[in-house]
From TrEMBL:
GO terms for molecular function: metal ion binding; peptide deformylase activity. It is an enzyme of class 3 (hydrolase). Its cofactor is Fe(2+). The active site is at 167. It comes from the Bacteria. This is Peptide deformylase. Keywords: Hydrolase, Iron, Metal-binding, Protein biosynthesis. Signal peptide: none annotated. It comes from Paenibacillus agri. One of its GO terms (biological process) is translation.
Length: 199
């Protein structure tokens, strides 16, 4: 007998900004649960729904219609599901769109060199402007599973590496501003090679 999911995030559900959990909600501070493999239908549909949100948010007409803020990444706990999975939709250096689903991701290696976004990072769960540099590894190698449950290992550099680290932080209950220097938001870590992504 098939158990019906009580999640509203079915494949045809349209995520709006009201569905995005905002900072202060305890779910954003929890370490998310490993996702059971093979993926349950409800998890697959939630991922599909999350990816559709990113596509809608990056489409000017649909973003205006549904009043969406543009996003390049969305983790499951940002829609209230404490599950270790997220989606990413971002262009690479050559302008190609990279669409990626990650289930139970883990960073298995990273560069010593670091980068940061000069304008700080943004987050769909944070409605206020946050100023300061967020140090990230310049490249990361990630191991996990895709939407079909197949094991994947991918290396990311630059902007994609930043997005991946931001989303994996979400899954660990960490907000991007936790990584900003508390005394001086524009102070960079000492003793490491670090530069602005857009230098």
């Amino acid at each position: 007998m098939k158990l019906l999911s009580n999640s509203k995030f079915t494949a045809d559900y349209i995520i709006r900004m009201d569905d995005i959990v905002r900072e202060g909600d305890p779910v954003l501070r929890e370490v998310t649960q490993q996702v059971e493999l093979p993926l349950q239908e409800a998890d697959r549909e939630a991922l599909q729904c999350m990816m559709q949100f990113l596509k809608n948010s990056q489409n000017p007409e649909l973003a205006a219609k549904y009043k969406l803020r543009p996003g390049v990444g969305l983790s499951a706990n940002q829609i209230g599901l404490s599950k270790r999975m997220f989606v990413m939709l971002a262009t690479d250096e050559k302008g190609r769109m990279v669409e990626q689903v990650w289930v139970n991701p883990k960073i298995i290696s990273h560069s010593m060199a670091m980068v940061y976004l000069p304008e700080s990072e943004g987050c769909l769960s944070v409605d206020r402007p946050v100023h300061g540099f967020v140090p990230r590894y310049e490249s990361v190698k990630v191991k996990g599973y895709d939407a079909s449950g197949k094991e994947i290992v991918v290396r990311y550099k630059g902007y994609h590496a930043i997005v991946i680290q931001h989303e994996i932080d979400h899954l660990d209950g960490i907000m991007f501003y936790d990584r900003i220097n508390k005394e001086n938001p524009f102070k960079l870590p000492q003793g490491v090679e670090i530069h602005s992504l857009y230098e």
